[in-house]
Amino acid sequence: MSKHSELRLDLALVADQIFEGSRVLDLGCGEGALLEHLMATRRCRGTGVEIDAEAVLVAIRRGVPVIERDIDVALADIADDSYDTVVLSRTLQTMLRPEYVLENMARVAERMVVSVPNFGYYPNRLRLLAGRMPISKEIPYAWYNSPNLRFTTLTDLEDLFAQLGLIIDRRYTYTQSGRRLRMYGRVPNLLAGAAVYVLRPGR
């Protein structure tokens, strides 16, 4: 059995970016699968932030320390450089103020790991051309019940990173079937279903 077999694809890739023994803050941690894995296999210490009460209970039963709060509010109370790595996995697109969240992530940790669905993926573009809102494996909701508030392409997201002074150390892109794309430049903005970024503040 793979050491990542219990993790979904993007979380396994995120886990591979975390150094052993790190202090990890997981924003939008859900049921705590990533932190449980890191604590068990990487000797990490971690804290999760999650607003869904049922997910918080599952995480607590797993032995994962969790703060039941909105991410915006929780970040305001966290001191500078409190963590080594802060994770935001498939959550940025649900934020009212994504730029505020990214700025504060850069304040509380020296490394940031962010995973996002790519709204610029070509089947999404084709569905829009057909007059329909995109629905895909990475964006599985109808327009009326989606938790997603912000739809971004990888190009737009990278422009925001640059605007905020965030440096991209690594970018991993993959198809919806989970195949890694060994591509660079702007091409993955068309062919990638999602991406994982490793960032650091430019300070």
TrEMBL record:
CDD domains: AdoMet_MTases. SUPFAM superfamilies: S-adenosyl-L-methionine-dependent methyltransferases (SSF53335). It comes from the Bacteria. Pfam families: MetW. This is Methionine biosynthesis protein MetW.
